[in-house]
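Hey there, shall we discuss this one?
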Amino acid sequence: MLGAVFERFVDHSPISVMVRGTLERVLGADPLDLWYERTAQKQYTRALLFSTVYDLMSQVVFRIQPSVHAAYRAQAAQVGTSVVSVYNKLQELETRTSAELVRYSARKLEPLIEHVGGERASWLPGYHVKIVDGNAIEASEHRLKELRGVEAGALPGKSLVVYEPASGLVSDVFPCEDGHAQERSLFTAVLRTVQAGDLWIADRNFCTREFLCDIDARGASFVIRQHRGLPFEIVSPLRPLGRVETGQIAEQRVRVVDAQDGVHVFRRLRMK
């Protein structure tokens, strides 16, 4: 149907053809613009399509172009609007739109990965493993030269990002425009996504009473490094479990009481 030239690509570089076809199906111009019309709450489309802005940003992210302005200049005729319009569109993009784009792409790509048998072996069979961690956007030096050394300058935003090792996808993100906000202020949004059968892995900053107890109450599990400030009571003494490659393991049971006086008993492991 597509001719002999296309067949040559299929024969000699099938993976390249599959990857491009998959990405165009999920992140092509038409699917992206339709998705944007359904998702955006405040913004709307006039002359500048969301897919065009996405394409310009992609060139910067993948370091094809050094900046949005350079990407615009390289294809100004195709963009069809002024560079001011491009920056205005980027400036007004809602954080919800950015988060939903991550979720949308993950929902679309996961079944395709499963269909071609691309999922990795589960780290722990029977559990849906998710890794959550904070991510701060790198600071930009594209400010007025006189302000670059001012400590009171605005900080870039931050987010919590969820990665699923089985699919190799970032499946969720919780962005925050306030660069001074603590990661813990975003925990409530993360907890709304916890489902029974999940296994959440995180560093000690996520070891709060609310986070651990809410995960437990939702029928999920966690492997989170203990924070010194976590209040708990020891239920049983440490019991040796033997050695692993990196040291000796011991375990005990501890009790954590949540804000509603509910009791949660957890397994506490110590590696020495």
Notes: Residues 157 and 179 are 4 Å apart (CA to CA). The two ends are 63 Å apart (CA to CA). Strands lie at 128-136, 158-164, 169-176, 198-202, 221-224, 233-234, 239-244, 247-257, 263-271. The longest helix spans residues 95-115.
